[in-house]
Amino acid sequence: MDSKRILAFLREVQQNNNRAWFASHRDEYLACKEDFEKDVATIIARISEFDPSISHITPKDATYRFYRDTRFSPDKSPYKNHFGAYIAAHGKKALHGGYYVHLEPNHCLLACGTYWLPTNILTSCRNEIMGNIEEWRKRVENKDFMKTFGKPAGGSWDDSHGFGMEHLKSCPAGFPRDYEHIHYLRMKDYCCWKGVDETFFTKAKWMDEMVKIFKTAKPMMDFINAVVDDYE
């Protein structure tokens, strides 16, 4: 994948996000899209080596339309300024967690997990965490996970790393306020991410590094997916 070419194109999109410009640069878009999707196919194959559940996914299953849905957004820019691939065993729209690769100028990242879970599933996840707290802690408090993603503290994709983007300010209803590990019950999503710089995708062994990051996150995701799958 020629990530320099892709990111250069995306920078131009940021500066010229209009239909006329895009129409005159459509060939470049199609070339970048094809290049990205070829590597997505390889990424799927690499992840399949340690997570066979996603081996049936194709690049088409994992990638998104470049055209933005502007119907309910104050930002009427017609095109996205990033390429992304979400590789999840149950598909992009399922609640079952997966692996995400994001290319955007000055904002590349790798992520793993699930978010925007309905309240009833969140409640079940919280109960499962409480009922198996030592197993959960093994998965999210080990040296590799903590070094890569940190503790649950809330944050956004703009942060260099993180574990859980949204958290309740207080204890969720029905759970003990004095619970020792209340910070895990306050989480509203179970997504972890690691920001990478633009040169990451130019390294000879960047996929090896990606695999290491995803393998570090997988035990946490597996714990949550075991709960989510009861509802799908």
What do these coordinates show?
The chain is α+β, with helices and mostly antiparallel strands. The protein has one domain (3-231). It is 44% helix and 12% strand. The protein contains nine helices and five strands, in the order H-H-H-H-E-E-E-H-H-H-E-H-E-H. It has helices spanning 3-15, 19-24, 26-48, 59-62, 119-131, 133-140, 143-149, 182-185, 206-228; strands at residues 83-87, 98-103, 108-114, 161-163, 190-196. The protein has a five-stranded antiparallel β-sheet. A hairpin with a 4-residue loop joins strand 2 and strand 3 (108-114). Helix 1 packs across helix 3. The radius of gyration is 19 Å and the shape is globular. The model has no long low-confidence stretch (mean pLDDT 95).
Mean pLDDT over all positions: 95
Q: In what order do the strands lie side by side in the largest sheet?
A: 1-2-3-5-4
Rough shape?
Answer: globular
Beta content comes to: 5-15%
What kind of sheet is the major sheet? 5 strands, antiparallel
Radius of gyration: 19 Å
- The count of DSSP E runs of length 2 or more, i.e. the number of strands, is 5
Helicity range of the residues? 40-55%
Low-confidence stretches: none
Indicate how many domains the architecture comprises.
1
Structural class: alpha+beta
Distance between the termini: 35 Å
What is the H-and-E element order? HHHHEEEHHHEHEH
Number of helices: 9
